[in-house]
Request: fold
Amino acid sequence: MRLQFRPIFQADASFPPATLLYFINPPIESPYISGLFLLRYGANVVVGATDLGRVAGLRDHRAAIVFHQDDEKNWHRQAVEKDAATNVAPRLPANFGETISLDALELASRDVKRGDALVLILYWRALARVDRDYTVFVHLVDASGRMVAGKDAPPQQGASPTSRWRVNGMVADGIVMPIDETVVPGEYVVELGLYDAATMQRLAIVAANGQPTTDKIVLDPIQISE
Reply:
């Protein structure tokens, strides 16, 4: 188990006290990760992960780092921007149809360099039994409405299909959207939502009166830099 985290151990001799280390789609169950990091770093670190099914609270700690792996199992990290407030429209929680709620979200940083990734954690909840598997979309859109980067995948990269969600149980869904060199530096918005891959039909967000309002959540602008 230690070998899977050797690159982190080699890169980090220590962490400041009260640092949260948060793992997206961890390679082993988070309680084991917590034990390994406690042995390595003592009480300086707190470990969280998407498999815990609760809000990470990225900004509830003195410092936080989000870790994720690419397809080749290489580790990447995103330091959490402490003072980056994230406003969204419509306001959360937002109900997609009658079965799924997006209760909350956390954005690691509102300033992302080209070659890095936009890191976002979505907190879903089934309001009732979901009868099909939906795909999550997260798109980076420029001022003209053109998508310049995107990530479409089932929740937790397919590990947590919506048809298997437990009613009222929270699902923490880590999104890692690579921002490549073709993205021109500037200001962009992030749009996200759900759709049925079989029909490509998006789920509508409904108001308190049950009427559909829109089919996407829109975040405040973020900055892509060199």
User: Anything to note?
Assistant: The helical segments are 6-11, 30-41. The chain has two domains: 2-79, 88-225. The CA atoms of residues 195 and 202 lie 4 Å apart.
